[in-house]
Known about the structure:
Structural class: alpha+beta
Shape: elongated
Number of helices: 6
Radius of gyration: 21 Å
Mean pLDDT: 88
Number of strands: 2
Order of helices and strands: HEHHEHHH
Amino acid sequence: YTKVYEEFGGEGERVLGFAMKDLVRTVDEELALDAKFKDKLKEDLIGGPKSSSPITDLVFVGLITLQDPPRKEVPQAIADCHTAGVKVVMVTGDHPLTAAAIARKIGLITHPTRDLLAKERGLPPDQIPQEDIRAVVVH
């Protein structure tokens, strides 16, 4: 999973993982026994405060990747901002690996991040000297 995620996420693709749970009865059968079955199942999947028994017996099914490329005019807009002295910051809910790849594609990151330097040097990220880092992804 991690290797595949790093490959696709590192290219700026969004990666979704899917899992399933075997049920003894169908959803309709469960609803006939308990009208709140779907609500309880949702709460158990999320693991919220009302969860009666958090679900732990899920079976990993696989990954799906999605491409959501930036609009073609974004790199030029960022370049224009930089030329004008405007500091551009990207705020996203993407995983940091995906966010960094997208930021590279649009010209927002032009230097290697701590993680990229670590990978290139075969070192753990915490062993990269601070003075070598010229690009940051905050998460």
